[in-house]
């Protein structure tokens, strides 16, 4: 180890779990990614199936947001515009692969919706067509359950991006999607666990075998650094500086940040490196990934989320934990202890402090509760 949005507009990052219609940007893929994602036997899918289904695993309707074989195929003109837009996002905007996949799926469904309304070019699309599509997403149908307000709003972001791009390129004279309103989304505050519950969660993770050591290290690191699950599984061994007690995280938009790691978490990582990782590495090809699966490959986001769910179940917190729970808890506990919001912003890797400020609302609510209980003039008169 070494020492040491909407895609079109976005500079503001919003966590998916705090605003479901979150704008996103992430690692810059190679330029050839766009061609791979839009090529292939299926005109709307491509070799990597860009354009199938919906990307929100928490939405019960999302898993079935794929193609209906009874729906008409969109015109070559519409398919071509979609391909141009995805190429633009991948090559010129450096949009993350996961975001490209999500946009492709949402726009695939949109083009089929237009085809069903006998619309063959973007110039023929009306505001009513866009509004009808959003309404259909919310209502569902015989072969597709209704999408949540958050998933429908995210789908509208993709549609707006396509029309905005077409308008900028001179393909259409008017951006008909610009004024279409998304479904109302109740904005909730991040849900953090109390410190005692976090400690129970950590204690409920892992064991003494290689997998248990890895799982304990994953959970400890998530809470100690505030990393997203995707950032944690993206770590390489050399990203952990044991002497400086820091971790180098690669966040959205390819932005890197150096964050401190606490002694308990570092001890868990070191125990895994010494007594756990070598066993898993022997089954693979000697890759650099910090967290390995049983076959010696890099641990996936889904597997890391399963680690967290298993620990939550063992701690009796199964209903209280989401993929972002430890990240929210990390930020909330820092704010409650008096950390400056700008410092928390840097630790979380937020592009804008406005995203971080949502945690001030959480701490203000906690302060109000203390005030109501402790201040003599805050209590109701007898």
UniProtKB/TrEMBL annotation:
The active site is at residues 228, 252, 324, 327, 350, 359. Residues 67-76 have a biased composition (Acidic residues). It is found in: Cytoplasm. Residues 76-167 form the Core-binding (CB) domain. This is Tyrosine recombinase XerC. Residues 188-372 form the Tyr recombinase domain. One of its GO terms (cellular component) is cytoplasm. Its main location: cytoplasm. PANTHER family: PHAGE INTEGRASE-RELATED, TYROSINE RECOMBINASE XERC. GO terms for biological process: cell division; chromosome segregation; DNA transposition. Belongs to the 'phage' integrase family. XerC subfamily. Forms a cyclic heterotetrameric complex composed of two molecules of XerC and two molecules of XerD. InterPro entries: CB, DNA_brk_join_enz, Integrase-like_cat_sf, Integrase_catalytic, Integrase_recombinase_N, Integrase_SAM-like_N, Tyrosine_recombinase_XerC/XerD, Tyrosine_recombinase_XerCD. Keywords: Cell cycle, Cell division, Chromosome partition, Cytoplasm, DNA integration, DNA recombination, DNA-binding. Site-specific tyrosine recombinase, which acts by catalyzing the cutting and rejoining of the recombining DNA molecules. The XerC-XerD complex is essential to convert dimers of the bacterial chromosome into monomers to permit their segregation at cell division. It also contributes to the segregational stability of plasmids. The keyword Lipid metabolism does not apply. It comes from Actinoalloteichus fjordicus.
